Every structure is written in structure tokens, then in C-alpha cells.
Amino acid sequence: MEGETRKIQFTGKSSYIISLPKRWVTDLGLKQGDQIRLVRRGSSTLEMYPPKFESRTQKKDEAVIEIDSSEEGSAIVRKLISLYFLGFKTIYVKPKNGRLSPGQRNTVKGAVRRMLMGSEITSDSSNGITVQVLVNLLELSVDGAFKRMIHLAKSMSSDALLAVKENNLDLAQEVIHTDDEVDKFGFYIIRQLKIAIQNEHMLEEMGFRNARDCLGYRLVVKNIERTGDHAAYIAKDLLEFKRPVKKEVLARLQEMNEFCLRTLDESCLALFKEDYVQAERTIQETSEISKYEKKVRDASKTLKDDEDIYRVRRMTENIRRVSEYASDIAEIVLNMNIEKALKKSG
């Protein structure tokens, strides 16, 4: 978004005025006599809202979910997350008839605590629950949230295999709990991206060149969420079978996992650096996953128990998926930066 520098002028006895570029007024469909709302944000920012935008933002402040007495918890959570994504600041959860059941209330409170970053319950009774989204849009940047999300997902992958190695059921349970944290950061980022798409000022504040980049980040977030999911699958496998995998096989699985996490790191680094060449290199590197899979297969030839063979195959598949996500992210980086690459080659 381009900027303009304008001089503040003094008029009358108590007012200061500033002129607006004609093109801005024309593009926004404004005319002489239209009302513009001015808002002070903190100590260093002034925002101006034209009438059309103002009416749209006011509608987005509050939303109401009406819950049927027979409605399941998963359906309530989906509605809550959807409204969080859409940028509502206050969400009222009310019973359609009668009262909210204790189970429904616990579902809402649990979802707010585990999934909706920056949200708090400000009112709670059988007649309804009020969810307030208090997070400041600029307190945690999209990049900052994204880096923490990546760190958590990678830690989950490493800890899941460590739990299998040590037959550590408590650590496996912790990996599964951490998946909620990964999703929580993901939901927060998606909310921010949707707000940025609808508000050019926020788009610039969040460091995006255009709305198309927001779509790219949305796809990347999904890949990181899935990375956490597959780590959780490995942890759940341990909780189901409650025994470690043969030492030699596990060493090959850990080697494979380290390779996948390295390629994931490289693809995300290419995203942050907007590096087309790095993204291409990462895509080529991910094709080497087959070498690591072969090492796991060779080590697995000594396994006799069908259950052990099945477990290793399932773990191999869960780990391999991470390299696919790394490749997908690198592909997104290519799409986001192709125009810059063309200019350099031209």
C-alpha cells in the first residue's frame, strides 16, 4: 500500500486539518460532506474509516450462536472456531430453548482455553456464555506465531520418537496435548490472515505485500498443523501398544525423521526469506526421502512379529508425510515469489 505525506494545517481556534489525495477519495467512492470516523490506536497511530467500511466493521464486532439442547459438542466447537476465524470480538453462546447443559458449557469453556488464542470467558451461566477476544492484533505477529507453531510441531516429532525409544507413556501423552497448542497458533494465524485480507491497513501492518500472500500462508499453516497431527499419531501408537520398537529400526526411523525436519526447516526459511532458489533446492532435496525409507525397510527385515512390522510401516508413513509437507511449502514459496524471480532473470 503506497503512502502519502501531508502537512497538518491549523484552522479556526481549535481545529487542525489535513488534506486527502483526490485519488484516494475517488477510489473509495467518497464525496464532499461524507462523514469519516477517526480512531486513535495507542500513542502513535491514527486510523480513518469511511462510512462503508465503518458499517462493515461494526457488524463484525459481535456474533451470537444459538445452541439446541441436543447439539453435540463437536458441532458447537466448529461454530465457535468459525466465528473466531471471521474476526468477531465478542461471541455470545446462548441456548435456543431452555438452558445450556453442563456438558455444553464445559465444551465451550474447554474450546476457548485450548483453541482460541487471546480469548476469555467473561460471563458464564446456564443462560449463556460470553466469549471475548482480547488479543491485540499486533502483539503477536503472524511470523512470530508461525515460528512458534513450527517449533512446537518439530518438538512433537522428535519427542514422539523419543517416547517410543524410552517406552515413555507420559511423554507420549504430552506430545498429544501439544497438538492442541499447534492448532491454537494455527487458528490465531488464520484469524489474522482473514482480518488482513479485509483491511488494507492491517495487510501492510502484518507485512504482507498483497492478499494473495495471505492465501499462501494459509496453505502453509495447514501443512504445519498436519506435521503436528502425524507426530500425535506416533504417540498414540505407543499408548496403544505400550512397548518400544526394536533399537536398530528405531535408529533408522529417527534418522529419517531428522532429515524430514531439516527439509521442513529449509522450506520455512525460504518462506521467511522469500527465497525462490532455496525453495527449488528444498523440493529437490525432499526427493531423497526414498533413501531413508529403504534404510528403515532393510533394518525391518529382522522383525518377526506381524504387529511390529505393521507399527514400523505406520510410523514410516507418518514420518514420510513431513517431507511431503516440506515440499508443498516450498512449492507455495515458488508460487508466491515467481514474479520476483522473473524480474531478476529479465
Please provide the count of β strands. 8
Which structural class do the helices and strands define?
alpha+beta
Q: What is the percent of helical residues? A: 55-70%
Number of helices: 12
Mean pLDDT metric: 87
Taking the sheet with the most strands, its summary is:
4 strands, mixed
Shape: flat
N→C terminal distance: 25 Å
List the uncertain runs: 54-59
**Which percent range describes the beta-strand content?**
5-15%
**Radius of gyration, in angstroms, nearest whole number:** 25 Å
Order of H and E elements:
EEHEEHEHEHEEHHHHHHHH
Q: Trace the largest sheet across and list its strands.
A: 5-6-8-7
Characteristic terms for this protein:
346 residues; alpha+beta; two-stranded antiparallel ribbon; 8 strands
In short:
65% of the residues lie in helices and 12% in strands.
Topology:
Elements: E1 9-11, E2 15-17, H1 22-27, E3 37-41, E4 45-49, H2 51-59, E5 62-67, H3 73-85, E6 90-95, H4 102-115, E7 119-125, E8 128-133, H5 142-166, H6 169-198, H7 200-205, H8 211-241, H9 247-273, H10 276-286, H11 289-300, H12 306-345
Parallel strand pairs: 5-6
Antiparallel strand pairs: 1-2, 3-4, 6-8, 7-8
Helix pairs in contact: 3-4, 5-6, 5-8, 5-9, 6-8, 8-12, 9-10, 9-11, 9-12, 10-12, 11-12
Architecture overview:
The chain has 346 residues and is α+β, with helices and mostly antiparallel strands. The protein has 12 helices and 8 strands. The protein has helices spanning 22-27, 51-59, 73-85, 102-115, 142-166, 169-198, 200-205, 211-241, 247-273, 276-286, 289-300, 306-345; strands at residues 9-11, 15-17, 37-41, 45-49, 62-67, 90-95, 119-125, 128-133. The chain has a 4-stranded mixed β-sheet, with helices on one face. A two-stranded antiparallel sheet has the order 1-2. It has a two-stranded antiparallel sheet with strand order 3-4. α9 (247-273) runs antiparallel to α11 (289-300) and α9 (247-273) packs parallel to α12. The chain is flat.
